[in-house]
Specification:
Helices cover about 50% and strands about 5% of the residues. The chain has helices at about 5-10, 30-40, 50-65, 75-85, and strands spanning about 1-5, 25. It has a two-stranded antiparallel ribbon. Helix 2 (about 30-40) packs across helix 3 (about 50-65) and helix 2 packs across helix 4.
Length: about 90
């Protein structure tokens, strides 16, 4: 999965316009796990040391909502969690 931040900012009319962007590739399973977690998490309860951290998580959720992981079933979420967790090593 390729997330292109530049496209999202330009489409939504963000004031930054020419802000530098990055492309981020994620395993689909990682994207599903992150999306599921972000959807079920109260970002106001997540410990942060700067408000920008909470905003970055909200921005990530917005980008994940624009890809096909939003339609993941409970079975797909469970399978993705299993896949991501199997090689943790810590």
């Amino acid at each position: 999965m390729l997330l292109t931040w530049h496209d999202a900012f330009m489409e939504k009319g963000f004031r930054w316009g020419s802000t530098p962007t990055v492309d981020l590739r994620l395993w689909r399973s990682d994207a599903i796990v992150l999306f599921d977690w972000l959807m079920s998490t109260d970002l106001n309860a997540v410990p942060v040391t700067h408000p920008a951290q909470k905003q970055a998580l909200a921005d990530l959720l917005t980008r994940l909502e624009e890809v096909d992981v939003i339609e993941s079933t409970e079975e797909e979420i469970a399978a993705a969690q299993e896949e991501v967790a199997k090689d943790m090593g810590w």
